[in-house]
Each structure stands twice: as C-alpha cells, then as structure tokens.
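Hello again, I could really use a second opinion on something today. I've been staring at a protein lately and its backbone has me curious. Can you walk me through what the tokens say about the fold? Take your time with it, there's no hurry, and the full record follows here:
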Amino acid sequence: MATTTLPLNVSEQGAIGLIITVITLFVVVCQLYLMRKQLHLMKRQDEIIARRADLTAQVEYTSSREFVFDVSNIGKRGVVNFDWHLWIPIAFGDDVFVSNPYPPQSASSGIMEINGQKYFEYAGNFRDFVYPTRRKIFARLQNRNVSGQLTFYYQIACEDGLFPEHLENNPLKITVQ
C-alpha cells in the first residue's frame, strides 16, 4: 500500500513559518538575556579584582639616628599578615639589629648583590591590619655611623601579591649627613 503526502496549503505553511519565527525570536531573546547577565557578572568580577591591596614602603631618618621603615597601603582593600624583606647596605655590618613590632628579626639570611652593590637581607612578618590610605612602621634600624647616599631595597609579600614585583624597580634612597 502506497502512502501519499498531501501538499500543505498556503495557510498551513504560513502557520508553520509563524511558529518557527516565534521559536527563533524566543531563542534570540533568551540569548540576549544571557549575554546581559554575563556582562553584568564580568563587570562585577572586574570590580572585585580591582579591590586589592597595593603596598609600598618608605624610609625616614630620625633625629635619634634611626632609620624607620613604614608600609603604606595605596590600594582599595586592607591587608593583614604580610611578610617583608629588607636589603641593607653591607656598610652597616653583619650584626645589624632590625626590630619590628613583633619579635625582633636580627638574623641575616645572607648577602645578595643588587645592581653591583652588596646587601644583607633581613626578613620579618607583620601581623597588624594595614587599611587603605594608612601607614604602619614595620622595621627600625639603628645607624652605625654610616653616612652619605644610602639605598635600601624591600619586598612585601601578601595574599594580593608581591610588592614591588621586581626588586630592583623600587629602591628606597636616603641621604644621611
């Protein structure tokens, strides 16, 4: 027995075309909704990523012949519990006492050469919270009759990264009379 298909009349073809058009339009509207939702999520992610700490250090020489090193948070998020490394010119000698608000760090972890000069490396941990736009002292160093143009280097490691990323890029320079 042979089956024959009857051709669709014009009104049936129009109805099928209308159904396909409505389904296509629905899919397009859903895709636009999803694209807008993804764009919103990407903007929110960028806002969250932009909220991070950005740490920098300064050195000051006080009237009590002491170098005071402090950290500033110029980022948009606070930071707590960071590690610091300080490279001190070898002219200070190897028995330099570096103190911070926590147990004193007086052990050098060796000699390192930076830009042709030799430095002792000292390290410590800072457990206080450093809020954005605030400064806190993280180390003090007594001067051992060293004068002239001095260059120190530092790095601070926290959950938001390593500051500065490259050690040689951000020296702390100070002149002592």
About this structure: Residues 29 and 35 are 10 Å apart (CA to CA). DSSP finds one helix and ten strands in the chain. The chain has two domains: 8-50, 55-176.
